[in-house]
Automatic annotation (TrEMBL):
Taxonomy of the source species: Bacteria, Pseudomonadati, Myxococcota, Myxococcia, Myxococcales
Keyword Protease: yes
Signal peptide: 1-23
UniProt name for this protein: Carboxypeptidase regulatory-like domain-containing protein
Molecular function (Gene Ontology), one example: carbohydrate binding
Length: 711
């Protein structure tokens, strides 16, 4: 009997487990879609089968006459898309994390293999080297595969598609190589240089080891030190108990270093790899004590901050904070000579106070006293231009004390617009106020004895005084409401498709209102409203728009991949105008934009190698063939004040009110293509003198740049 019960229990358990397994198996169906093009090197490929695979689920469709395919009603899951035509194969993995996937490009091409051999600088083959080969992209490798080199250092990596190939080679104790574009015609001969370690120690000015200090490196010229979500960041190490450290596997070149001890200021410097063992000295520095004297009864937690040294070449400006002890003092060690800013801030009920003072530390121990005692009291009231009290505004008092100490007190206004400042130290003071929806009031100087309350007037902002209300209903071509839509970049969810919102009016300028919804072509309405009026647009019908196909080419006629495509209204061509449509070119340079408006619009093409191009697409046109112009080429080298080239960084060129960015090579050189005309170029995020330039289409202008400060 027990045996029968046991078998029955096992059967029930098996059924439950099977049911659970079936229930947990994710479905292939869902609310999303995947769409894109199948392309070959000669253009879109019509009438080929495309399969989408997720685990054991397989969906199938065929491309239309334009090479377009779409899978509707699929789950948000990782899908593998494949297309075949004879011996040609194309594949693409789609990770649907956020929902729908557009602009998926499948490259259909015969199989190809990258071959080569990896050897060291002495010619010895390197075994076990990791080789990745894939499609070359600006931000890395796409669809790469990885292999290890054999006994003879050889490797073979299949790479699907027809786009340019890039190869990344990594080996322990060697400097990585990135090869792009890589050829499949001749084998690659990859030579890896040995990497170099940086060894050294960090000591103080007395020769004692500095324990637990972090060492950070960056290539010379790079603006910031490398960072990551994980600790420690790249090119970083921590000193040991004897002050020593080691950073392995570095490429030769010039680096900037940062030493961050625990209890003293950071130090900056330079080091050249390959280098002998280094010995970096962090000055012990002196002690600064900040004594804070507060009015009686004003007890609250505060933090004292010290920022500096300001503008020091060899010590990095840093910010340190200490909480004062019971006597009101906070001490900071490791202070080197230089200029500093000391500050403290605190909240008292509905009041915010901030004290700051810039001073010079000479290196010896010093006590800086911030005496904030005071018996003065100021009262006031905040009103608008009609004399109506403003509640919830903020009044601010600014005061400069003896010795250069600056005090800021900020309070919220009461229901009647009133405010009061208590415990104000002696000194020249001024007060002003502001409030949401209002302009800043005039600044008023207050005397040591202010018998009458200060009256501050804050006028309503023009956008509030001169606003216009716009309302309407968004519907489809059959008059059915669209429940989810956007008006002037603001999202609305309304079952009846209704909206109402305010816009600021600037004089006699027309008001442009954009209306858009997922799956529909957008609309742009031009209004000529007057201040304070209400404009009722009624039903705004959004249609399906038109399909725009075509091709974008580089100046040499080659299809241009990774170009960003935007459509803009001719009335609003600037970067602040709304996007009428958005997309990207496919690997062969193909364009496929659905839902573009029937009205004329500007087609804007932007690519990191070529100047931005705009073309007007008239109404009724459904194809566009664009070949980008070569533009004006800027080239040069960026050096520091000593004449050394920056090994990392970028440049910024401004022409006709638009910005264009370029990157530096390891020898400090740059090449940047911009539209023809006149402008100026400077070093990105570094102090430098802008260099003017002027040139015509196809010309090359040389502009060398100099960073004004050192490390």
């Amino acid at each position: 009997m027990r045996l029968r019960i046991f078998h029955h229990a096992l059967w029930v358990l098996s059924v439950l487990l099977l049911t659970s397994a079936v229930a947990e198996e994710p479905s292939a169906r869902g609310p999303h879609f995947i769409e894109g093009l199948v392309v070959s090197s000669s253009g879109p490929v019509p009438d080929v089968e495309v399969r989408a695979t997720f685990r054991e689920h397989v969906l199938s469709t065929r491309t239309d006459a334009r090479g377009h395919f779409v899978f509707r009603g699929v789950a948000g899951a990782p899908w593998v898309l494949t297309a075949t035509r004879g011996s040609e194969l194309g594949t693409q993995t789609v990770t649907m994390v956020m929902g729908n996937e557009r602009f998926v490009g499948i490259e259909l091409a015969p199989p190809r293999v990258v071959k080569g051999r990896v050897r060291g600088a002495a010619g010895t083959p390197l075994k076990g080297v990791r080789v990745r080969a894939g499609i070359q992209q600006r931000l890395g490798l796409l669809k790469y595969q990885e292999v290890l080199t054999g006994e003879d250092g050889g490797f073979e990596v299949p790479v699907p598609g027809f786009s340019p190939i890039a190869v990344l080679v990594n080996a322990p104790e060697h400097v990585s190589r990135y090869i792009a574009p890589a050829s499949v015609v001749a084998p690659l001969d990859v030579v890896l240089e040995r990497s170099e370690p940086l060894r050294g120690e960090v000591v103080d000015s007395d020769g004692k080891p500095v324990v637990g200090a972090w060492i950070h490196l960056k290539h010379y010229g790079r603006v910031g030190f490398p960072s990551t979500c994980f600790w420690p960041p790249p090119l970083s190490a921590q000193t040991r108990a004897d002050g020593s450290f080691e950073l392995p596997e570095l490429a030769r070149g010039r680096y900037s270093f940062l030493v961050e001890p625990k209890d003293r200021l950071s130090a900056l410097g330079e080091v050249v790899i390959r280098s002998q063992k280094v010995r970096w000295v962090v000055p012990a520095g002196g002690r600064l004590t900040v004594a804070v004297v507060l009015p009686k009864g004003l007890i609250h937690p505060i933090w004292v901050h010290v920022d500096g040294p300001l503008g020091h070449r060899d010590v990095r400006t840093s910010s340190r904070a200490r909480r004062p002890d019971e006597a009101g003092s906070a001490s900071f060690d490791g202070m080197v000579p230089g200029r500093y800013l000391v500050s403290l801030s605190f909240d008292v009920l509905e009041e915010y106070r901030r004290v700051s003072r810039e001073f010079r530390f000479e290196g010896e121990a010093r006590t800086l006293t911030l005496d904030l005692q005071g018996a003065r009291r100021f009262r006031g009231r905040l009103v608008d231009e009609r004399g109506v009290a403003i509640q919830g505004g903020h009044a601010e008092l600014n005061l400069e004390l003896t010795g250069g100490t600056k005090l800021l007190i900020r309070r919220a206004t009461a229901r009647n617009g009133g405010f009061a400042f208590e415990h104000v130290p002696p000194g020249e003071a001024s007060v002003f106020a502001d409030a949401q929806g209002h302009d800043e009031s005039q600044r008023v100087k207050v005397l040591d004895e202010q018998p009458e309350p200060v009256r501050l007037v804050s006028k309503r902002e023009a956008s509030v005084r001169d606003a216009v209300r716009v309302s309407g209903r968004v519907v489809d071509a059959r008059g059915r409401p669209i429940p989810s839509f956007q008006v002037a970049h603001q999202s609305f969810e309304n079952a009846r498709g209704r909206f109402s919102l305010s816009f600021p009016v600037e004089g006699n300028k027309p008001l442009y209102v954009s209306i858009s919804a997922e799956g529909f072509a957008p609309e742009l309405r031009k209004l000529a409203p007057r201040a304070g009026a209400t404009v009722r647009l009624g039903d705004i019908k959004l249609g399906m728009g038109r399909l725009l196909t075509g091709r974008v080419e580089a100046p040499n006629g080659q299809g241009l991949w990774e170009a960003t495509v935007r459509c803009r209204w001719p009335e609003l061509p600037g970067r602040d105008g709304p996007d009428v449509c958005y997309g990207a070119t496919y690997p062969d340079g193909s364009l496929y934009l659905s839902g573009v408006p029937d009205e004329p619009f500007l087609l804007e093409i932007q690519h990191h190698e070529w100047p931005r191009t705009r073309r007007l697409i008239p109404a009724g046109v459904d194809t566009a063939h664009l070949r980008l112009s070569p533009g004006l080429t800027l080239e040069g080298v960026v050096r520091d004040a000593r004449g050394l080239p920056l090994e990392s960084g970028g440049v910024l060129a401004r022409i006709d009110g638009e910005d264009h960015f370029g990157t530096l090579s390891t020898d400090g050189t740059y090449v940047l293509r911009v539209p023809p005309g006149a402008g100026a170029i400077e070093v990105l995020n570094r102090p430098s003198e802008p260099v003017p330039f002027e040139g015509a289409e196809g010309q090359t202008v040389r502009a060398n740049l100099v960073v004004l400060t050192g490390n």
